[in-house]
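Please supply some protein, with fold tokens.
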Amino acid sequence: MAQERLGVLAIYISKSRLEELAYFKRLSKEGQKLGVQVEVFTPSDVQGNSVRTLTYDSERGRWLRKSTSFPPIIYDRCRYKAAANYQMLKAFRNRHSKLIYLSKPLANKWAMHQILSQSATIRPYLPATVRFSTVQELMKFLKKYKLIYVKPKNGTGGRGILRIEQLSRDLYLLQGRNQSRSIIAPFRANESQLSIKLHTLNLSPDYVVQQGIHLTLSDGRVHDYRLLIQKNGQGEWEVTGCAGRIGPHRSITSNLHGGGIAITQDRLLGFRFNSSAKIEDIKEEMNNFAYKLADYLEVKFGKLCELGMDIAVDPKGNVWLLEVNPKPSREVFRRIGQNSTYQKAVTRPLEYALWMLKQKNKSTDEMID
């Protein structure tokens, strides 16, 4: 049987180094088992009607470059860390709109909050969020919620996030990470000192201000959950898995890239709740919410392949959505030793791509008939 081809749209993080190459290697190996050739390329590898792709040769243990026609179906793994990348990828999609894409791009944090707020089903899971306007408005928001996060609307991986907490009537604590993910030294201040400090940070409407959910464990470290929901080989949503993440000491985020550790969902829930019935209820609530959110986002944006949801659980057991990512990592499952979940997380996009190609061939056959 002829091999199917799946194009993986990637991005260079330096002149010749591709982001996520280890994942693409694993994807290629799993693809070979399913009869799918994975072909990796970036928008800058396109030359007219042909494209210079990388395919992994398992026998020789290395990547091979060749010039070929466009693969019929595209798995977009580009992360838009810079505006220039976003524009380049948008131009690629516009120019090659006839290709089949496994997913559509989503909106930035602020636009996403507005879209999700339109749904009466999704709205209860969202922390209150506003766009940054002035330091004075930010202080009002802080006094209302006592704990807030300030995030770049296009940020990823915990870059540039601030956490501000009102500790007493005129004492505040500012913590965070800079744009290179380094931890900023905690800053305790009164209201006027905090205002001066915030003015020096050059905040702009490109930031959102969000109600904070209390995520601190007894040892002072923050935690959250990464839930992965993906389309399966029948084209239907299925929760692949959910794992916990705990940030390093003095960190306000739990991202693995920022030094966080992975832990099983059950164990992390067990740190806060001692009732097994309560833990099962929370897990069921997370899963139910994931299906609702995935369905809603497809209505708003079109076909999607997979979603990583960063979920918080407050001390009462309420579930909150912190962020949704259409290009999620699956590393968290490997880190907790759930190798079968990790393998499933790698394989599902391939199975979904095969299902999509089958649908395309079926509709082509019907047109001929």
Q: What stands out?
A: The longest strand covers residues 237-246. The CA atoms of residues 272 and 315 lie 7 Å apart.
